[in-house]
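Teaching note: in complex prediction, the entire set of molecules is handled at once rather than each chain in isolation. The prompt given to students was simply: 'Predict the structure of this complex.' The entities are:
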Amino acid sequence: MSDQSDQSDRNDRNDTIGIDDLPIREELKGQSPYGAPQLDVPVQLNTNENPYPLPEPLVARIAERVAEAARGLNRYPDRDAVELRTELARYLTRTGGHPVATGNVWAANGSNEVLQQLLQTFGGPGRTAIGFEPSYSMHALIARGTGTGWISGPRNEDFTIDVGAAEAAIAAHAPDVVFVTSPNNPTGTAVGADVVERLYEAAQAAKPSLVVVDEAYVEFSHRPSLLPLLEGRPHLVVSRTMSKAFGAAGLRLGYLAAHPAVVDAVQLVRLPYHLSAVTQATALAALEHTDTLLGYVEQLKAERDRLVTELRAIGYEVTESDANFVQFGRFDGAEGSHAAWRRILDRGVLVRDNGVPGWLRVTAGTPEENDAFLDAVRELKKEQDA
Ligand SMILES: Cc1ncc(COP(=O)(O)O)c(C=O)c1O
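The expected output is the structure of the full assembly:
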């Protein structure tokens, strides 16, 4: 729920009863929902969205395809989304360095739903999942929502994965699902194929378990996709999204590539007709414009690199980034980063406090948005150094 609607929503309901007074599941008591602030400020660089609106020819094509779909809305959509999965497979084959067929691909409403379906199938009550933190907070939240126990695995000081410690954690806990995010959110760090190979081996020796490589930001990376690792690894999944590189966060379309048996397995938990005909039509239209959309990725990579250079010139530390965002610091612990977040917001720029003490994250926006951000942090630095 957005902050704007919070108050009116509270006014509409009886405040004497709270969530914890309801007979909800024990493990949900006292927890908070995912909640990146949605504030109405001029420069919004906090949720790693693509700042460029879809180009007009694509908007027109979406209108055409959706109109076509609308004529058939009296019927349920294609439950297996075959045309869409075929086009996604074609995209992955063309860009991922590995042949992917329709049967290797599954799609859902955002990669969050893909991850949820994976945890419903391979996690669940009595089972556990591990991620190496700080990482994408929804991995732990979706684990909790599906009744899967969460294990917080270690990272090095520089936010790279400590492979030896990660192998040891996998051996000690024998988790059912292992998450590897590459490039990682919020740090931006990409993971080498050798690391995933070792973690996969450790996970198979310990259980065997499902290894999920979350490649939400891979199109922004200098490193190639880890898709070729699917060869000979039936317990490996690569998850992707159209929310970032395709500039279509509002569409809600995520997908995975894996052995066809994994695709068959998630059918056991997916809701029938989960992907509306409108969503499928819109995603297909966007895929027709892949080359134009990926053109924006090149601009965003250049802006990301500019942010890194300028932030360092101002005097901030920056984590190496392979994504469309940059983690910068350091501030004085959790309080220092939150105070800095507030000071930047006071200047009309919304960045993200991911709860990593001493660090904040900024999404690469348009050149103008990035200039506004850089002006804000330049002033902040002067204040801090004064
Ligand atoms: C690492 C990572 N994975 C997955 C997602 C979810 O993306 P979506 O559900 O929009 O596909 C995000 C969104 O920020 C992310 O950062």
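Point out the following to students. The mean pLDDT is 94. The first helix runs from residue 3 to 11.
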